[in-house]
Amino acid sequence: MASHAANLWVLLGLGLAGIFLMTKRLKKTIKADFGAFIQKLELLPPPQPAPPKAPHPLTGLNFAVSDVFDIEGYVTGFGHPDWLRTHEPSTRTSPVVLALVEGGATCIGKTVVDELAYSIHGENKHYSTPTNPAAPARIPGGSSSGAAVAVAADFVDFSLGIDTLGGIRVPAAFCGVIGFRPSYGVISNTGIIPVSSSLDTVGLFAKDPSTLRRVGLVLLQLPFSVQRNPKQILLADDCFELLKVPKDRISQVVTNSTEKHFGRQVLKHENLEKYFSSKVPSLKEFYSRKINGDSKISSLTLLANVAQILQRYEFKRTHGEWINSEKPVLDSAISAQINETLDMTDKEIEICKLVRTEMRLAVNNLLKDDGILVIPTTAYPPPKLGSKEIFSDDYQNRSFSLLSIASISGCCQVTLPLGYHDKCPVSVSFIARHGGDRFLLDTVQTVYSSLQEHADTVAKSKLSPNAVKQEHSAEAVKEKGNQAYKDKQWQKAIGFYTEAIKLSDNNATYYSNRAAAYLELGR
């Protein structure tokens, strides 16, 4: 542990040296802990069991927790000094934290969260915004900003946070680490300050997939099972259209890695806007009651609206009395959202909850037990510190359209870093059905190294944008050929495969598929 700590300080020194010029330009002082921690402490694991019993599963790992988790003897601060001032020290430690300590890990501190853990930006004027180690001039993302920074800066092996509408996934994406939002309800929220009870999920950050899986299995308390490979990997094409970075920078990496591990045949394409429009009928009822104007508003935008309304409604129901009595000084954007009049009838809230039920069923039916849905984690790269971009309607709509899929359905999602684009971290997210957490963690473990290799290759690739576009067009045409083949329309399938070959003539799959269609036609 001592040598590990020494290495951390060496890394910290290098990191500080590397961002010294940036800090001068920003006129911001970088703290020794990157501003990640709000309080240092130490919760030690129990002694190791005597042989021949196996050692504790998390032996040798240290971690931190966001300041929404109760730890006995400490006030849970909830990202605001007025909350800290008006609450007593906790009398019990959160069961999730206890389970990790009893599993052999050492807890070394509490980390900064957004004010009242409400936003996804990671900026906190009361405790200062933690510095994003991956991009010091950019926001770290929130609400679990400090927990992500602590992992990204190598202060801890993993950390805990809470994800309501992106509180784990956004900072993971912006800080270039792995973030895991488990299936809703599979991990106890006892001993955690709630933000929105029907959306909140305990989540975790890690630097590598082995640690993620190791900790995840302890948290989820899952029995041993044989690892399964996915039989379908669905790229949500319409979600990739929301990206503000080149979509091929991400989709091509996933395509290449999938082909390497599972074969090209498992790759499928999906339009989620159309799918949810047909499979989540309560969205139409929500639209007819609450959304006026644009009749072409997408189902993903409607989902984003439902998620934000649920968060605001449940937050005010839980914390409204404290806010009204204490009148805490809040960031203007957070204050505007919290204090906005929410003109919702009980019936309309019930419709929002019905959307949740239908969404879970829709995603579960789409993915079944062996499917992975692939979407961008966030539409934008991390915005600059102090940027007004984060308050724009476009930023909000694109962000929550992606984040609401797992939040509303309650399905599990892992955010995976894919290197950098224009000096900013980029990421992708894998989603599995509700309850498919082990399957998702196993899949991540299998493909992670390959994703990193292909991300590096694509980043350095000299392929022209037009050539990459042709490859994707060829894939889309091939999918049409596959559908025609399934429908036994052999001549039509041959035509599609021939078109794909013209677009990309070095792909053996297109030739073999066309040959199979010719054989069927001959019969």
UniProtKB/TrEMBL annotation:
InterPro entries: Amidase_dom, AS_sf, TPR-like_helical_dom_sf, TPR_rpt. SUPFAM superfamilies: Amidase signature (AS) enzymes, TPR-like. TPR repeats lie at residues 474-507. It comes from the Eukaryota. Residues 55-212 form the Amidase domain. PROSITE patterns: TPR (PS50005). Keywords: Membrane, TPR repeat, Transmembrane, Transmembrane helix. The keyword Membrane applies. Gene3D superfamilies: Amidase signature (AS) domain (3.90.1300.10), Tetratricopeptide repeat domain (1.25.40.10). Coiled coil: none annotated. The keyword Transferase does not apply. The chain crosses the membrane at residues 6-23. This is Amidase domain-containing protein. It comes from Gossypium armourianum.
